[in-house]
Design goal:
Blueprint: E1 21-22, H1 31-48, H2 54-59, H3 73-84, E2 87-91, H4 97-105, E3 108-112, H5 129-140, H6 143-161, H7 165-177, E4 180-183, E5 186-189, H8 192-195, H9 198-206, E6 211-214, H10 217-221, E7 233-237, H11 240-247, H12 253-259, E8 276-278, H13 283-286
The chain binds phenylalanine and fe (iii) ion.
Fe (iii) ion binds next to helix 5 and helix 8.
């Protein structure tokens, strides 16, 4: 999902169901495609040891299925449903926001069917099955995060009625995709866009370039983001419980009203009121 994805067709493609899902056709993947998954999985699970949050690392086990290679989404869904009631369904590409939100509200995560080719193993702008499944599914095995994602879907449908989708999309971006969490031993990764990226896993935690700021809901909903490169700012939550309290248990209608009069913030902004854990040098961004 993004807030600037441009015009999308209103009707699903011919081979898709009315809810935009398609059959995964697991037997249709080539050996090279399965090998790509296995390579990315091995490289990234080693990278995340000691970097990803406990809940994510625990959830990684649901991806260890009966056969190697790209997960069979039917088998994966069975495992995941038993844990938290979520399932994963394939789609042909980006789907309209409303369709995406409705799936989340029904505890269905939609995933791209295709996998990246070797010349694109590092940065992708369109999510493939490695990002969607390796990045997102482990946390859907965590009760708290599973609830957050469903509530986000319901909140997404609601945001459309308030004309506030772009504000709520920023919350998704800075939590679900690029969030960091404070843990006893220091900062850890939980955002799917980070944990599925070899380069950004290190960059987000260890590089002096980006800002690392305490999570503040209104601040986040005012902050623009970049989709073409590593983030210039990461927001750090205190815990998943705290994130749920600030979002699931909060009525956003008055917040949307207040946001109408507030100016957008640049992706690299640091404000007087920010809880600054690390003020970024932005050295990396300056070279791009
Ligand atoms: N509680 C929010 C609302 O009133 C919706 C929401 C839930 C947003 C969970 C994000 C995450 O609209
Ligand atoms: Fe994603």
């Amino acid at each position: 999902m993004s807030d600037d994805s441009g015009p999308l067709p209103k009707a699903p493609p011919a081979h898709a169901a009315a809810d935009w899902t398609i059959t995964q056709d697991w037997t249709g993947y080539t050996p090279a495609e399965h090998a790509m998954w296995d390579r990315l999985f091995a490289r990234q699970s080693a990278m995340l040891e000691g970097r990803a949050t406990e809940a994510y690392l625990r959830g990684l086990d649901v991806l260890r299925l009966s056969k190697p290679g790209i997960p069979d989404l039917a088998e994966l869904s069975e495992r995941l449903t038993a844990l938290t009631g979520w399932r994963v369904a394939a789609v042909a590409g980006l789907v309209p926001d409303e369709v995406f939100f409705r799936h989340l509200a029904n505890r269905t995560f939609v995933a791209g069917r295709f996998i990246r080719t070797p010349d694109h193993s590092d940065y992708l702008e369109e999510p493939d099955i490695f990002h969607d499944v390796f990045g997102h599914v482990p946390l859907l095995a965590d009760r708290r995060f599973a609830d957050y994602m469903q509530a986000y879907g319901q909140g997404g449908l609601r945001s459309l009625r308030y004309g506030a989708l772009h504000h709520l999309a920023r919350l998704y971006w800075y939590t679900v995709e690029f969030g960091l969490v404070r843990e006893a031993g220091g900062l850890r990764l939980y955002g799917a866009g980070i944990v599925s990226s070899y380069g950004e896993s290190r960059f987000a935690l260890e590089d002096p370039s980006p800002n690392r700021l305490g999570f503040d809901l209104m601040r986040v909903m005012r902050t623009r983001y970049r989709i073409d490169d590593f983030q210039q700012t990461y927001f750090v939550i205190d815990s998943f419980e705290d994130l749920l309290r600030q979002t699931v248990e909060t009525d956003f209608a008055p917040l949307y009203r207040a946001l109408e009069g507030a100016a957008d913030l640049e992706p690299d902004a640091v404000l007087d009121g920010d809880a600054v854990l690390h003020r970024g040098t932005q050295a990396y961004a300056a070279t791009r």
